[in-house]
Amino acid sequence: MSERNIAIIGAGYVGLVAAACFAKKHNVVCVDIDEGKVELINNAKAPFYEPGLDELIKSGIKSGKLRATNDINGALESAEFIFISVGTPSKDNGEIDLSYVKSAAHDIGKALRKYAVVVQRSTVVPGTTRNVVKKIIEEQSGRKAGKDFGIAFVPEFLREGNAVHDFMEPDRVVIGADDDRVTDNLLELYRDFYPKMPDSTLVTMSIESAELVKYASNLFLATKISFANEVAELAEKIPNVDIVDVMRGVGLDKRIGPSYLGAGAGFGGSCFPKDLNAIVHFARKIDVPPFITEAVLKRNRRQIERIVSFVVDQLGKLDDKRIAVLGLSFKPGTSDTRESPALKIINELMRLGAKDIIACDPKAVDEAKRVFGESIKYTEDPFEAIKNADCAVVVTDWDEFKNISPDDFAGLMRNPLVIDGRRIYQPEKFEGKVKLICVGRYIQR
Prior knowledge:
Elements: E1 5-9, H1 13-22, E2 27-31, H2 35-42, H3 53-63, E3 66-69, H4 72-76, E4 81-84, H5 99-111, E5 117-120, H6 128-141, E6 150-153, H7 163-168, E7 173-176, H8 180-193, E8 202-205, H9 207-235, H10 243-251, H11 272-285, H12 291-315, E9 322-326, H13 341-351, E10 356-360, H14 365-372, E11 377-379, H15 382-386, E12 391-394, H16 399-402, H17 406-412, E13 417-420, E14 435-438
Parallel strand pairs: 1-2, 1-4, 2-3, 4-5, 5-6, 7-8, 9-10, 9-12, 10-11, 12-13, 13-14
Helix pairs in contact: 5-6, 9-11, 9-12, 12-13
């Protein structure tokens, strides 16, 4: 297959990772309204931290296969595939906000001059691609889907911190399309890009089924996390029980698997909370009670309360205590703090009277400063963070935190108390040196 011309609307995590990866083989234009992002990309720099992305962007810019622009008309002039990868945030009531998707569809419709396959990649509730995106493009272009342009939904399954790997070595590619021409074009694109991918993992289905695949996948993964956290709370009340051992035994069942069974501070990020709230709103709208989804969200909120309760139970009044929060990003390997448990824990600690909080993260300090300003202290050095602290709360499992030894905690902290909200430490190594409270491990009361 020869080089293809691809336009990607949106230079966020999904859009820019796809653009940089596709540029290894094809000619890619990334379109974004943020001039700062466009300038950074054209200067071969990623506007956010994602492992491996900087190198890919530099390679794409150097080869001439990747460029960024805010001129959608020029970007679509020769595009054969147009990927919509813009944000779909939540409204206050949990409903999906389609304003960016609608704006992208409007701009594509205005700029469309020749046949291209328009691929919706932003996560949207079933029916959106057909009834919103396609309709807007038809209205604005005066062209007809199926004849003058193609329409499809191809969900993304990228994990922040592993996004480049996940794009280059996907478990599966799901193509939602109801037009043989569109399906064939996309199958050709992906088969060429992933020559070793088995046909069984390149699956095709209706647009609406593909839209629901994305939500169903995220709901299932979030459910596994909340399940582990619910069992963890049981474990904390039962002598000689440790959730790490329990979930290891559970995960060896091939029907279940070990992934996403780590008990801890709960899930965050740009996908799970947003998508689960969107499912709740969508389900109610079509008169389906979202029992499981609501329970998963409720359990996830409880994890924040539980981590904070560990701190309060051990320290009592917080106004004269120094608390180190280890981790700000919602997971390691990213600078993203959206819906991060750490930020929620900090907010709750401050609400309960904590006045001396120092937060540590190797990548996300700048993002957190936009939220808290000067109301807390910041550092990228975990040893500086724990110095003279009365409590250290581990909320993100960065390797930098795993390297802190019990002796380091004992020697640097004013009161050697560690709340392990990610189960990164071996409890037996802390005995006699540091008081360690772990999620999912029996707590002596």
